[in-house]
Amino acid sequence: MTTLVRNAWYVAAWSSEVDDTLRRFEILGEPVLLYRRIDGSVAALHDRCPHRQLPLSMGKRIGDRVQCGYHGLTFDSDGSCTRIPGQDKIPPSACVASFPIVERHDIVWIWMGDKARADEADIFYMPQMSDPAWHAHQGGALHIASNYLNVAENLVDPAHVSFVHPTTLGNSASENVPVHVVTEGRAITAWRWIRDAEPVGFFKAFGGFEGNVDRWHYYHLHLPSLAVIDFGSAAVEDRIAEDERDRGNRVFALHFMTPVDENRTVDRWMHLRNTAVDDAEASARIDALLQKAFAEDVAILEAVHAEERRPQHRRPIRIAIDRGPMVYRKRIGELLERERTEDISAEPTPAFVYHD
Asked: Domain Rieske: where (predicted)?
């Protein structure tokens, strides 16, 4: 049974990844062709000719149209067939599926499910993404040999930081600090504060802290697979409260996880910061620090996924820190169930009287 939620907006690519070249991407197990039209907008088509199944990305462009490289069938950017060499009649079945695309903040979003349910208002947004007091910087893309559920769960789990990232994003000071979890609302949130402790490697290198700091991790997981990590540090003597994090050295790490298929995930990541806003070198330093930390995550996640695919001789256990991931799996299951069934109960008959 699939774990892939289709009725959702996913990041298909950074804007910089899409130009007038025909490029193939794989999203939710589907081959997708992305290219820019002459007017600069992005077209998204199923990357497979309906005739002999050749990827259209192996064909060529004729204006905004795409010509198959096998027998010359030509398709408009909305997927309609405009030419079949050797015959005048073009049957309705000679078409290619297209996908809704929205481009914002140099991010290309795609909707892979029911087009009637694609609402642009549901696309993720943070005010800091367009706030001049913050610097937004796109990083890279992690290609992870793991189901996206494992990747997403890792991003609502502050407890792993002390052990997986002991020299970058965590240290031993946080090992026994309680993790708070809230599962109400649209996002699942887990967080903790570590007061009067040694700064982690990231903020030693980037924040320049020498003495002890108060530091925090807030993990916000938005379904189906988008995470915002709010982390930062402030000097102990500043005595900042939990709602005063902007007074400290604050960074948002954003993870846009796009399932390639059941066994592979692309995690495009970027960061927002409230310091060194005009310093390009700061972006490069942060990229290097985050790349090191994320490589540590990838090694763990790929090993976990490989073991999950082996024969299981006992049931895995769950411990106290698993509350967030367990709620996440439950909510994903509910989304999938809605996609597997059609709800026709919106107008119940008088035969049923509901009291809840």
From this structure: 9-110
